[in-house]
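Hi everyone, sorry if this is the wrong subforum. Our group has a chain we'd like a structural model of before ordering constructs, and none of us has done structure prediction before. Sequence below.
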Amino acid sequence: MTTPWFASWFDSPYYPVLYRHRDEKEAESFIHRLIHELNPKPEATFLDLACGRGRHSVTIHNMGYEVTGIDLSPSSIADANLHATQGLLFEVQDMREPFPGKFDFILNLFTSFGYFAHETDNMKVLGQVSESLNPQGIFVLDFMNATKVVAGLVAHESKIIDDIVFIIRRRVENGIILKDIHVKDGSKTFDFQERVQALDHNQISDMLEKSGLRAFKAWGDYQGGEYHANSSDRLIIFAKHQN
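Answer:
Right subforum, don't worry. Here is the predicted structure as C-alpha cells:
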C-alpha cells in the first residue's frame, strides 16, 4: 500500500528544515492570546490534535493546564516526548481514529486539516472531535485562508537551507492546493508533496454542522483580528456542540 503523502513528508528530516523559519515568538504569542480568549477553568483539559513536535502543547501546559498531544509522525512524537511530564502526554495516532479521552478544548492548529483525498476521511476527523469534546467544550480549527492563498499562489520557488536545496512548485487542481517539493541534499535527491484542500469558511462551517458542531466565531489572524475572506492571513474558527 502506498504511504500517504503526509506520513512520509511529516516524518521526513527535511520537513522541519524547510519550515524552520516559522516565527516561534508569534506562535507562542498566539497561544497565549487564544488561551486568554478561551478562558479555561484551572482544571480544564486540552487535546492538541496533530501536535507535531509539541511546541504548542508545551506552552499550554506551562500555563497550568493538562494537555494531551497526538500526531501521526513517530519522529515528531519522539521529539515531543522529550518534554513529556505529569499532565503533558504525547501519543502517536491517526486523527481519524478515536481520541484518548474527553476534553474541554480541542485545538487543531497551523493548517493541520484537509489533508485527506476523500471528504469522508476529513469528516471522520471532525466526527472524532465532536465525540471527544465535552458538552460545553470548544473546538478551535486554525486553517489557512484558502481564498487568499489561491489568489496569491506562487507557482515556483527555490530555497537553500543548511546547504540543502528545496525546489517548490505550487498549483491548484480540483480544489486541492498541491505543493511539489524536490530536495537536493548533496548527491541525494528526494521528492515530496503536500496536498491540502482549499476549504473556505462556508465549506468548513458546513462540515462542522454535519458533525454536530456549530461555528460561532472566526479570527482572521494570530492577533485575534476579524476574518475577511479576501484579505485575512488565516481562518481560525471557534466551534461548539449545536445543543
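For your construct planning: The chain has a mean pLDDT of 93. The chain has two domains: 5-144+200-241, 149-194.
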